[in-house]
Amino acid sequence: MKTEFAPSLLAADFSQLKKELQLIEKADYLHLDVMDGVYVPNISFGSGIIKAIREQTELKFDTHLMITKPERYIKDFAESGSDILTVHLEATDHIHRVIQMIKNEGLKAGVSLNPATSLNTLEYILPELDQVLIMSVNPGFGGQSYIPQMTAKISKLKKIIEENNYQCKIEVDGGIKAHNLEKIVKAGADIIVAGSAIFGAEDPAQALAEMRGIASN
Ligand code: DX5
Ligand code: ZN
User: Fold this and answer.
1) What is its EC number (predicted)?
2) May I ask the CATH architecture of the domain 4-215?
3) pTM for the predicted model, two decimal places
């Protein structure tokens, strides 16, 4: 399967959003990092901003909710135009219920695991998930370094998905650059999130094309 790319808006110039979106129109998704200052130490943007940019791009919206008790906001983010909603397993006491809420809105459902969270936590929800988001940095900020142990975590999850024939993609998020992309794709990543490697580049369109080239080798 072809590797898909989801540039993270967090690294874009927020004063030029329309222009920034045009630069990455060849991506597969737009990754939207929502941070509440409670679940993670940083505050980014909410459903109002997502709604405002929904009309400015054809890209699918891959919304990553780094917020505590995401069940309070599923409807808001569904109505903002998200296509995929990913919540953190660690941010709710009722992850299965939240997955059901997302699916009831007609959206694809993802669950994200922090670097220290075991894959065992997925055992009873994996058959219902459209994607698992493996955090390869601690959530909260762009521009951090990839945590090397996450490569083995990706391979292990890939094996579980293949052995059980689950229809679940693996998305990997944090610290991904041209130099470490190949091993992450080989380990089993289906969707690559990249913030600083794309929006921080002089030419984001070219950076995206280069990363696609590396992933398809
Ligand atoms: C981190 C976010 C990431 C971040 C990735 O909490 O979930 O999506 O924007 O940024 P880079 O690619 O710069 O590590
Ligand atoms: Zn993210």
Assistant:
1) 5.1.3.1
2) Alpha-Beta Barrel (3.20)
3) 0.98
